[in-house]
Amino acid sequence: MSHSRITVRNLKIGATTDSGRRVEIIKGVSFDIAPGEIVALIGESGSGKTTIALSLMGHTRSGCFIEEGNIHLGDAEITSMSERARASLRGTKVSYVPQSAAAAFNPSKRIMDQVIEITKIHKLMPRDKAEEKAVELFKALALPHYDTIGSRYPHQVSGGQLQRLSAAMALIGDPDLVIFDEPTTALDVTTQIEVLRAFKSVMANGGISGVYVSHDLAVVAQVADRIIVLKGGVIQEEGTAEQILHNPTHSYTKELLSAFEPVLHEAIVSPTAAKHTAPILEVRNLFAGYGPVHNGEPSAKILKDVNLVLPRGRNLGVIGESGSGKSTLARAISGILPPYRGEVLIDGYEMPHALKSRSKEELRRSQIVFQLADTALNPAHSIGAILGRPLTFYHGMKGAERDARVVELLDMVRLPANLRHRLPGELSGGQKQRINLARALAADPDLILCDEITSALDTVVAAAIIDLLKELQRELDLSYMFISHDLSTVEAICDDVLVMYKGEVVEALPARDMSSKAEHPYSKLLISSIPQLDTGWLSSLEQDPDLVAEFALR
Amino acid sequence: MRHKHKPWFLVSQRLGIAFLTLIIVSFAVFFATELLPGDVAEVLLGQAATPEAVAALRESMGLDTPALGRFIGWLLGLAQGDLGTSYVNNMTVAELISGRLSNSLKLAGIVTLVSVPIALTLGIGAAMWQGSLFDRGISILTISVISVPEFMVATLSVLIFAVWLGWLPALSFGADTSSFLEMLRAYAMPVITLSFVVSAQMIRMTRAAVIETINTPYVEMALLKGALRSRMVISHALPNALGPIANAVALSLSYLVGGVIIVETIFNYPGVAKLMVDAVATRDLPLIQSCAMIFCVSYLSLITLADMIAILSNPRLR
User: Fold this and answer.
1) A317-335 tens-digit pLDDT
2) Domain containing B15: what range?
3) Are A445 and A367 a contacting pair, CB within 8 Å?
4) What is the distance in angstroms between the CA of the first residue and the CA of the last residue of chain A?
5) pLDDT band at B3, cuts 50/70/90?
6) Residues A392 and A250 in one domain
7) CA-to-CA distance for A97 and A182, rounded, in angstroms?
8) A283–chain B nearest CA distance, Å
9) How many domains does one find in chain A?
10) Are A466 and A454 a contacting pair, CB within 8 Å?
């Protein structure tokens, strides 16, 4: 195997659970990486992709341990090394680009000190040489103010810049292998393009091998030569990027790919639409913001003059990048953040601005479902109690009547009735999000505000949630406002789409014509930035630099 | 959102709050003492005194003026640097306290010099080798020290080192302190006892604060850059744990000025804590007030100092 840079043979990694049980999380994995090759590890959460990537550095997270197998990095055999010998390889032979650079940079140290720390730890070069090299890398990674950015603290630069700085940190010691652990997952799409391009060009110039861990096939298609598909700690399929994308053989790979297929939404005719002439939701000239209020206006104004109409039985998508005010819009409509100007009408009735001044009936009509079921569900309450509370609050249900309704609600979201005795912590991510949805359904709402409800879920799980939302809509005559940064999800469920940018609605258009009919320059930029399942997409993508300079959040 | 506050603004805000706390505490102590049954006139004249004699003494001491008036008078005096005069022996409070305070500060200073470096080293070490035999040993030791009352530690050490072994003098004050070695011997037992008590809490808090930062992604990142354990902890974890550690240390040390009455009694050490307890027994208000102010000032300055360290160690606030 002298021609391979890294050789993994029959790798098995075990873990000890909190209850002391031992489980195998990587079940005999073997692969090779050639010099200059970039290999992607792809799979859903829990598939073991990050565990494998970290083991290439001889590192396992606490509670995990390498049970069996060999990892060769060049001539070095990592599995049998002492911790001190492994430390001497880290940063010099193999280095790491983390998922969230914002968390991986020490908040109390300057960026430059952290970027060149590898040269200091391994005594590679004098400080001034290291700083010179770092500035060159900053330049190669297209960072703005590359000669002074190093003197700042991590909180003083943007997320996309930090992610590129973390790549500079990984490359400073001239490693043979760089591990990218979902490095663009936390970024906005317009930012992601720049970061991916920067990664690609520095990797190609140096002839460095790479491991790219991701759950996003479209992103992986842009950077990887070869793709390894993982599930449950086992390699399902391995092949070149073209092979995997166009001729997948394994059923799981096909499932992953089909979740990417745009399924255009067919409008559902509401059975009661004829009776109700008023739209289910109408927002007129809405302004909202945060911070101390002076003269009736908050200091940080977020939403500016937002108008929208959502007819009964239809679904409205709200898209935009982080900071565009999507979530603030949902919070303002629901009254959690009372708007300071404008009107919110639900089913033709004007709602009081603040949550606490709305009546029970007004509250019942619109429900909100939050992005993270983990934080939205009280970990100390059983599922039965979580679903029972709104039943008592809105409908005064008690005892057997309430229990029967809880079982019905679980059935609606396709979960077994015995789940009501469990705690949220004992459920999977997809199950928790279903409970989150069931809690909203408990109120018998007409309108559900969905705030990024599929963003934290794996592709396949998210697709199932979208199907569930559609079924529920047909059965229960619901309307959704669906907030997301993921355009294909919005396409799959929405009739109309609002594009938001810096708190304003810049464009409203039908969802199915989103790509072809967008007219506002920001909408065009945003839509063209969504990675496509095509290995040549990134290299052939041309974006107007003026447009990028004006709108991209970099 | 960016923090627009400048550090000096944050610091002066802390100082302002500290000053306000001081006024409130002095008010509370004054009126709490007023609520106690009996007053200094009754104490001085004893049980056999006639009501007329007590009344006459009260009048001559100015105790018959309303409490609020006396409080304001005392406060005005304090503003001019006058701590007042003791009711009991007509000495100025400044004179009564000065000797005692320097004794207390000397003891507190020595205990600080001994306990803080040891506590920080043990706490950081326990965090660094979390779960090891060393860590578990430290945990058991600190929990036992916290749960055993300090009079037990003090009495036991007197019994062992002074009575049975005869190595150290049982009483610190009045012992021969002419040579350095003699001084060391004289202070050994109170210092050891107090160090035990204040270190335990500091060790536990330091360990917890460091472990919390060790579990952050940026410390894992340092590991993946090839850093050894010592560098990870000292260069990456510790600077971010400085705020909570400084607060834990300040809280423990503030106890050393006013809270050491048991140790002062057992080792017959003339510090301010004992002075205040005696003053309460005789209802000597000016003395009680001044002692309370000293305790409060030392507590507040330690806490404010810790807050300032926390602010200055965090670039996002600086």
Assistant:
1) 999 888 888 989 999 999 9
2) 7-36+83-312
3) yes
4) 42
5) very low
6) no
7) 8
8) 28
9) 2
10) yes
ipTM score for this prediction: 0.79
> In the predicted model, what is the mean pLDDT of residues A220-248?
91
- Tell me, yes or no, whether A242 lies in a domain: yes
Q: Does residue B317 belong to the interface with chain A, where contact is any CB pair within 8 Å?
A: no
Contact A25, A2 (CB under 8 A): no
CATH number of the structural domain spanning residue B280: 1.10.3720.10
Residue B69 lies in a domain: no
pTM summary value = 0.80
**Among the residues of A90-145, which ranges form H helices?**
101-104, 111-115, 117-121, 127-140
Q: Do A446 and A321 share a domain, yes or no?
A: yes
User: Which two structure tokens, joined as six digits, stand for B129?
Assistant: 């080798």
- Residue B43 in any domain: the answer is no
Is residue A524 in a domain?
no
Q: Which of B210, B217, B201 is nearest to B234 (CA)?
A: B210
Q: Distance between CA B210 and CA A179 in Å, rounded? A: 28
Q: Is residue B112 part of a domain?
A: yes
Task: Name the token pair of B89.
Answer: 């022996």
For residues A238 and A327, state if they share a domain: no
Count how many domains chain B has. Answer: 1
Helices marked H in A290-359 — which ranges? Answer: 326-334
In chain B, which residues have their Cβ closer than 8 Å to the Cβ of A105?
218, 221
Shortest distance, CA A274 to any CA of chain B (angstroms): 47
Beta bridge partners of A432: none
Q: Are A370 and A378 in contact (CB under 8 A)?
A: no
Q: And the tokens for B85?
A: 């005069």
A95 within some domain? yes
The alpha helices in B80-215, defined as continuous H runs, are 93-128, 133-147, 150-157, 180-214
Supply the pLDDT for residue B285.
83
What is the structure's pLDDT at A115?
95
Distance between CA atoms of A98 and A377, rounded to whole angstroms? 29
The rounded distance, in Å, linking the Cα atoms of B27 and B91 is: 23
For residue A51, the enclosing domain spans: 6-258
Query: Do the Cβ atoms of A103 and B217 come within 8 Å?
Result: yes
Please tell me if residue B254 touches chain A, with a CB cutoff of 8 Å: no
**B173 found inside a domain:** yes
